Amino acid sequence: MEAKNSIFVETFGETPTVKVLDFFLTFDSFDYSKSQIAEETGVSRITLDKIWQDLVNKKIIVKTRNIGRAEMYKLNKSNPFAIALINFSLKLASAFAEEETSKIKKKVEA
Questions:
Q1: What is the pLDDT of residues 32-49, one digit of tens each?
Q2: pLDDT tens digits, residue range 48-88?
Q3: Which of 34, 63, 80, 102 has the most CB atoms within 10 Å of its CB?
Q4: Order of strands, sheet of 61-67, starting from the edge strand that comes earlier in the sequence
């Protein structure tokens, strides 16, 4: 069975940056290595390395610790950009849920 894209990815497209942001928005409680992120998002390590520095420079994601040679990163929930993304993602999901509920109600009433 093929995994379905999140509403965030459906709205903004399947670009590497959107996929990585979606991953961090979805799994925001833990930290991850670049290899884990690449594997989970389907973004190649080479492509991930191209977009990585921009996310770090904007402090949307931050390094948390080292485990052996692996650097671990997580969503910076105190960053204004990250907070705005979290809030927008929640509003987007809520709007989608309302739309789907409305469709179901119309089918039931018919």
A1: 999 999 999 999 999 999
A2: 999 999 999 999 999 999 999 999 999 999 999 999 999 99
A3: 34
A4: 32-33, 70-75, 61-67
What is the phi/psi pair of residue 78, to 5°?
-100, -5
Q: What is the DSSP string of the chain?
A: -PPPPPHHHHHH-S-HHHHHHHHHHHS-SS-EEHHHHHHHHT--HHHHHHHHHHHHHTTSEEEEEEETTEEEEEE-TTSHHHHHHHHHHHHHHHHHHHHHHHHHHHHHH-
Domain ranges of the chain: 11-109
Is the domain covering 11-109 a CATH 1.10.150.530 domain? no
Alpha carbon separation from 26 to 23, 83, 102, 105, 109 (Å, rounded): 5, 13, 25, 28, 34
